[in-house]
Known about the structure:
The complex is a heterodimer of chains A (332) and B (227).
Chain A: H1 6-14, H2 29-50, H3 52-87, E1 91-96, H4 102-113, E2 118-124, H5 126-137, E3 154-159, H6 165-176, E4 181-186, H7 188-230, H8 232-240, H9 245-288, H10 300-331
Antiparallel strand pairs in A: 1-3, 1-4, 2-3
Helix pairs in contact in A: 2-9, 3-7, 3-9, 7-9, 7-10, 9-10
Chain B: E1 2-10, E2 16-25, E3 30-34, H1 41-48, E4 56-61, E5 64-65, H2 73-78, E6 81-84, H3 96-107, H4 111-124, H5 140-152, E7 158-162, H6 170-185, E8 189-193, H7 197-202, E9 206-211, E10 214-215, E11 220-221, E12 224-225
Parallel strand pairs in B: 3-8, 3-9, 6-7, 7-8
Antiparallel strand pairs in B: 1-2, 1-4, 4-5, 9-10, 11-12
Helix pairs in contact in B: 3-4, 3-5, 4-5
Amino acid sequence: MAAYSAAAILVVRTMPSPPLKKNSYSQGGFKHYLTEHQQTAGESIDQLWIKPFGSLMTILLIGLSLSLPLALIVMLENGDKLVGSWEGQSKVSLFMKMDVSEQSGLALSQRLALRSEVRKLRYLSKEQSLKEFESSSGISVPLALLDENPLPAVIILEAKASSSPDDLSRLRDELSLLPEVEYAQLDLLWMKRLQAMLQIGVHLAQVLALILALVVLFVVMNTLKLLIEHRRNEIEITLLVGGSHAYIRRPFLYLGLWYGLFGGLLAVTVVELLLWWLESPVARMSSLYDSSFQVQSMPLSLFFQVLLFSSLLGVMAAWLEVGMHLRRALAK
Amino acid sequence: MIQFENVSKKYAGGQAALQNVSFELERGGLAFLIGHSGAGKSTLLRMIMPTEHPSSGKVIVDGHDLRQLSSRKLPQYRRTLGVVFQDHQLLSDRSVFDNVALPLRVSGFSHRDMGRRVRAALDKVGLLGKERIMPGVLSAGERQRVGVARAVVNRPSVLLADEPTGNLDPELSGEIMDLFEQFSQMGACVLIASHDLALVARYKHRLLSLEHGRLLSGSHLGGENHA
């Protein structure tokens, strides 16, 4: 062994050891504390690369678990927007009795057009109804084979946007009593039903999100449990040389954060891909209904909410798992 | 500095590791803890760390009753200790520098101070220049010296060593013991557990002799009473 250097002894002699009551970072200051965090964050990212396959599997599992409720939520939001876009175009269709003449039908439509609730009105004669049916269904009706046109004349009333569903229901009831009218249909009803179903869907998505969040929590906890086992010796030595629980926890919290964050990024990517894939079929379907509706991409706020939520889940899982390990270590 | 007051330790099976042990070691004092395997040397050291607590009695270090030490204060207390483990307890995936720097890192030393202290400690144990080497490629003796460097790097007020010269040749053992003596002269309280009686006999320090968990009142080595 080399002879002791006088300078080395002097350095050790002159440097004070930390007193018991000083806080952990009194030696290097807050800047050093931040540097330590930065270093730990970087080291924990490196940790992901030590076992890339295992890390990838964990991130995939988190991403796919989160993408399911997220996709449902985004779809439901789209459905909600679709219903909303149709709601302003609430229509009451009045199907005329077959024996009502075109003149009587037109006269009725002129009378109805004067009503305050009506924004727009369209009268379709029997012939026009047939043509519209043929063009929308693509089926040509051979009138030669039929005794007469089976379709009635129709008056389509578009209510004012300010009309409430109750106003429209009342209008429908009132108009159905007119002697010329065989049947009055309020198109809003099925939209209300759809909206109610969408509400049920939202609740289901919330429950699913909760269940899958628990899955994510357990997946991260299990992954970290294995890692903690692998680093048990390091943790014990660090505790023995004065490492605080916060110091022990820190790299695992960052690891949990990365798992959650990357899992969240994967989830939003999967959902965005799904929306992109659905875009043209939905646009085709919308055009069939004379609608300009397009699939809405995930709002930026939801994107950040997902990342925040998934990151917090990862951190929470790490906190719980390391906490359990430290409690076990203390109990020993 | 270190006070044991009627300390006994019984394990779950009823086996007594320590029985009514009392002694006091002053600041700047150096004592050897001797005894056969299973005499209770390691248990006694573990109570100072403290990774174990007595079944009865008190262990007081630097005025702190270790049983009363809160979990928040425990890390701060441990930073005042230096421990040399029999089996080195090095991190195999960290370099010599990182191993020695660990107590400084957890104490929040700046990188500059850490570098100075680590190099000084490695110089003391003759390993300066091997900072970047991984412990796996070092000999058992070198690994033990890394363990010693890690124990002294934080300039502890209490230095505990469990068979610190177990893997070292007589010359190196002597140099490590000299280092411990220097630390006690600098005011640290040093307690060394060893069964190397030949080595212990070369130093005229206090002996704490354990036999079946009991501390013998007077200990003799080579006809000389050190107690």
